[in-house]
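Issue 218. Parser rejects a valid record. Input:
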Amino acid sequence: MSLEARPRAFLLKPGHLERDAEGNILDARSSVTLILAPSKKIIVDTGLEDEADLIKKRLAELGLSPEEVDLVINTHDHADHCGNNRLFTRAQVLLGKGGRRLKEGEVVAPGVWIMETPGHTLDSISVVCESSRKIVVAGDALPLMGNYLKWVPPRLHVDRDLAMESMARIVEIADLVVPGHDSPFLVRERTRTADLH
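Output the parser choked on:
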């Protein structure tokens, strides 16, 4: 794939997770990622409903409106990852509420394909974007950089072994991970980055 034909990814907003002293979740907000592929404009996860204005503002800064998005891919069906699906009125929703399930290896656009990454939920997926570096938008299959650094599964999971296998697959192929509830990070360098290019 030529450099001009490669998809490009843009972080519309990083994820966030806040816990109390006992570890109970006080606030959970997913990352929202835009992938511009040669043939499609794709949003991966749409955040919480109260983040609609922020998402529209970030899209506008990139010269886009929600109506121009072709596909919405939800990494799984939790409200903090699909709360703004309704914003993208002309988009086909894949996975998530009202969407169809995506399969391992399914190509959704040139240079953009699906990894099944169960563990957090049984139907969790990640989206691989083969840009200038291999980016994996992991959702809650790898929710925090700390999960990678400490090598522990997501705290909320349905199957620990599956969760660990999925994390291993993600970091094996990724140069950069967009976690579900944290800022993006470079796998080998073990450092955060704001730049997805």
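Fixed in the parser; the record now loads. Residues 20 and 125 are 28 Å apart (CA to CA).
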